[in-house]
Amino acid sequence: MSTKNQTEETEPTSEDQIQQKKIFRQIVWPFAIAETLVWAAYYYSFPALLPIWEADLGFSKTALTGAFTLSLIVSAVAAPIVGRLIDYGYGKIVFAGGAAFASILLILLSQVTEIWQFYAIWFAIGIAMAGSLYEALSLIHISEPTRPERIAEGAICIKKKMGGGGGGGGG
User: Fold this and answer.
1) Phi and psi based region of residue 89 (left: phi greater than 0; alpha: psi -120 to 50; beta: remaining)
2) How far, in Å, CA of 152 to CA of 158, rounded?
3) How far apart are CA 147 and CA 25, in angstroms?
4) pTM (predicted TM-score)
C-alpha cells in the first residue's frame, strides 16, 4: 500500500503538466529568444562587421579583434561581481540592464573614429556580456527562491537551446 502511495505522488498530474507548459511559455521561451538575440548582438555581429570596420576605420584586423578579446576578458573578470548581484536578487535587472547597455554601446560603435574608442566600447560591452549571457541567465533561474520547480527546468531548457547539455557543467 505504501508503494502505491509513493508511486501516485511521483506521477505528474495533468495539472502539473499544464503548469509546466505555462512556465515554459511564460519564462523559458522569452528568455531563450532574448538570449539568442543577445548572442547575435555580441558574438555574431563582430565577425559580420569586421570587414566593414577594417575598411572604414583603417585599422588592422589584429587590432580590431584585440578589442573583442578584451571584451571576453572583461566579461570573465566581471562575472563574479555579476554573480553577487544576482545572488542579492538583482538578476532580472542585471540581465535587462546588460542587454540595454550593450544595445546602446553597439549603436555607439557607428560613431567610432579612433582605435581607443573602439577598445573602450568593447571593454564596456564585456561588462554587459557578464550580465546578460547564459551563464548569468542560469544563475537568475537558480537564485529565484519563490518557484524552485521552474529553476531546474528553465536552466536545463535554456542550456539545451544554447547548445549546452542538460547536466551540471558549463554550456
Assistant:
1) left
2) 10
3) 15
4) 0.67
